[in-house]
Design goal:
78 residues; alpha+beta; 38% strand
């Protein structure tokens, strides 16, 4: 199995697209930084941590006390 390696900007794109699918405050979200496989986001009120897993090719975060998961292939990245 080939392991892909994502750049911080690619992680931000996956995180942004993931949040676009699962939240309603998209235009207010700022991508504050990337550390490891976690993208830290802020909308002025709520801090979100979106995890981008390369090996399993999935993106997930806890939103509204529920873990939401999407796979890379399910995200349409512009």
């Amino acid at each position: 199995m080939t392991t892909i390696k994502l750049t911080p900007n690619e992680r931000r794109k996956y995180a942004f697209t993931f949040l676009k699918e699962h939240t309603k405050f998209l235009e207010k979200i700022r991508m504050e930084g990337v550390i490891g496989n976690k993208v830290y986001c802020w909308n002025g009120t709520i801090a979100l941590v979106v995890t981008v897993e390369e090996e399993t090719e999935k993106v997930y975060a806890e939103i509204d006390n529920e873990v939401k998961i999407m796979f890379f292939r399910d995200l349409n990245i512009d």
